[in-house]
Amino acid sequence: MSAGSDQARGWGFAAPALLWTLAFFVVPFVVMGAMSLATLDGRTLVWGLHLDNYAELASKAYLARAIFVSLEITLTVTVVSILLAYPLAWIIAFRVPQRWQRLALLLAILPFWTSYVVRSYAWLLVLAREGVVNQTMLGLGLISEPLTLANTRFATVTGFVHFFVMLLTLTIYANLVQLSPNYRRAAMDLGASAFQTFRHVILPLTLPGIMTGAFLTFVLCIGDYITPQILGGNTELTVPQVIMVQLGRRADFPLAAALAIVLMGIVTLAYLAMARWLRLDRL
Amino acid sequence: MIRHVLPWAYGLAAFAFIYLPVGALVLFSFQDGSLPVPPFEGPSLRWYADVLGDDDLVAALLHSLTVALGSAAVAVALGFGAAYGLARHHLPGSAVLRGLLIAPLTVSYLIVGLGLLIVVQRVGLGLSLWTAGIGHVVINLPLCFAIIYASMGAQQQNAERAARDLGADEARVVLLVTIPMLAPAILAAFFLSVTLSWDEFIIAFLLTRFDVTLPVEIWSMLRSGLSPRLNAIGSLVFLVSVAAILVIEFTLFRRRRK
């Protein structure tokens, strides 16, 4: 086969996917970027190279506030999820007998496959004023008045943490079982305590896995609309919620596009900050 | 003593946390009363009967199935083509092409949906299940490509060469050698795409109008607050996702491990 015809066949196979990605991902993305530089004159769109939308982000307090709220929630969720998931992944990897590990892992992440909407609704059942937690605690006499758990940041964070604990358990477990047991044995033989072994051997070796999981958590969490909308109520708005407000009530597409670009910018910064640990090519 | 008990106690607590919402969802879908909160009365199947007798919900369920199966089929076909083209032929700039195909993975669904919505409106196309399906292919294509590309090893390549030496043309090689050998990866990619599309909300919400998918229908039901109907339909949605995941786990990966 000549090099030319080999290339032509290769293009033939790859072209549909490449064209699809160009037409329905790259082009929309470019148009959205251009839209973020347009302005609204009343209800008519004026294309151009204006920075009005970005200036509005800086000057309107509720928009800047949304970015801050999103970052706060996302960072809290990422840190709490890692702290909760690591021990669970550890237990499955090192305490559960080998032949049950796959089943334990499958069970630990099964509710991961619930629709976003359904999962958030299910948390509402648990956290509502007359929900499972309040009824149980009232019944046990632990509290005399129902607690306000739903429609708070606590509820949003709980819903998110639930989801990401499962995701991170999976990524951290995958990392832990790849480690050769020899590293642990060597550290122990050299007199390291269990904690020292963890701190100086296991943790550094699993850092890439943790960081990959943390980055996924960051990206998915900061871009999610459903969880804060259903569980957080409208007490405070995250960036995706503000974007949806612009699309719905106000039909201000340029401002929504600018917010989306800012969201992408934040994710890119997070990526650059974490890039030296990430192994996205190995996903 | 503590050292032995603590891990199991932690594991139990973690599982309780993980299963608390799903447990409440499923348990109170069998509630006999009209509020899905304790105390539990029942069990009763009245809310399932109610849900399956609701034309809007059943229509949304069928829409979701159609979009999920259709978009997954397209995503797998495109993903396989790209994986085969890039793994088996020398294309200039193949690292850039791989990056381009993977790129949608790093962008929020909301942004993918917003970009498509803007373009669809500019072009003057109407919103429908088709536009939602296009969006679902965009988010699933990178996964299908990555899964299939990663499983294209030297082993298949040798079999392909052998077939070619015996006179098979490229179409035969792909259909009779490559696809059967990659069947586990192709099916895993397909079922994963089905699950992700089936569960997806924000793209479907932005890109549909009159005919909607199940998550969008559930979303509009949410405005009227907690109801055992929502528990019943939510449990059904969960059941379908779990079924797809179990198919992947028990048929595809079992076979690979042998």
Task: Describe the secondary-structure layout.
The complex is a heterodimer of chains A (283) and B (258).
Chain A: H1 3-36, E1 39-41, E2 44-46, H2 52-59, H3 61-94, H4 98-109, H5 116-127, H6 132-139, H7 153-178, H8 181-189, H9 194-222, H10 226-231, H11 239-247, H12 253-274
Antiparallel strand pairs in A: 1-2
Chain B: H1 2-27, H2 46-52, H3 55-88, H4 94-102, H5 109-123, H6 129-150, H7 154-165, H8 170-181, H9 183-199, H10 202-207, H11 214-221, H12 228-257
Helix pairs in contact in B: 1-12, 2-12, 3-6, 3-9, 3-11, 5-6, 6-9, 7-8, 9-12
GO biological process, one term (chain B): transmembrane transport
InterPro entries (chain B): Bact_Polyamine_Transport (IPR051789), MetI-like (IPR000515), MetI-like_sf (IPR035906)
Family (chain B): Belongs to the binding-protein-dependent transport system permease family. CysTW subfamily.
